[in-house]
Automatic annotation (TrEMBL):
GO MF annotation: an example: acyltransferase activity, transferring groups other than amino-acyl groups
UniProt-recorded name of the protein: Uncharacterized protein
Superkingdom as given in the UniProt entry: Bacteria
Organism: Mycolicibacterium fallax (Mycobacterium fallax)
Spans through the membrane: none
Amino acid sequence: MRLPSVGSRVSLRYRLPAGSEPPLTEAVGHLEAVAPQLRLRTRSGELVTVEPADLLNIKEISVRPVRTSQIRALEHAAALARPCPQQDWVDGWLVRAGSSEPLLNTAVPLEVSAQISGLAGVARWYDERGLAALLALPERLLPLRSSAAAPEKVLVRDLTDMLDIPGGEPVELTDGPGAAADGALTVARLPGAAVAQAAVTTAPDGSSWLGIFGLRVDPAHRRTGLAGRVCATLLDWAAGHGATRAYLRVPADDEAALGFAESLDFRLHHRCRYVEAQALLGGPPPTI
């Protein structure tokens, strides 16, 4: 069982001492230690200590309570950061196609009006283009329960306390290819060693977000701090462009990437899962 990092906000379920009634209980709070015992500080200030053998389940939750409207706003800013060659609105769903990245060719329920009843129209939009409809479903936006492929964690941090940029060769910033919709786009490079793209976009609620994506480090230069230098430079760049918060999208099972994000003070905001529309509509998939 992977334990969230110290400082994460978690929900845990654990056994009480023998003879306790009830025998199990739950707690929510911030982790203060994970070894040799788990220590969690609740909102009321109580310190809960749990032996590892008594821990039944632990789940990381957003570092502070997040409203559904805030999830929708962040996802809208993320969609603006990476527009697709083909995109449109269908019954409150943003439908997208034509990207070289499969997980961008998805339909996401960004408007409050987006409902399960609109899936037939979404599927038809993709079918007209010879594509199967894949849905990006940020948690809590729709009351759906379904098995999901490639679950992601969306991690965020504020841009108030900036990271120190380590010394060394300066990170080069150049205008990115294409353009973010209603925002600024850049590419950060350490030539021959590391590269990442970033965009600053503004959500409908007025919040301004930095998104970092496409971070790659040459295998010969990994574990030398270059990824951290690139990200620290991008956080500084974004603050100069009016961003107040930043986000990363990380596969939920990529422990190395999650550990790196947490080392930069990114913490969970929400999760997103990917589901084929046909699995929710029922019946055989369309012939394409």
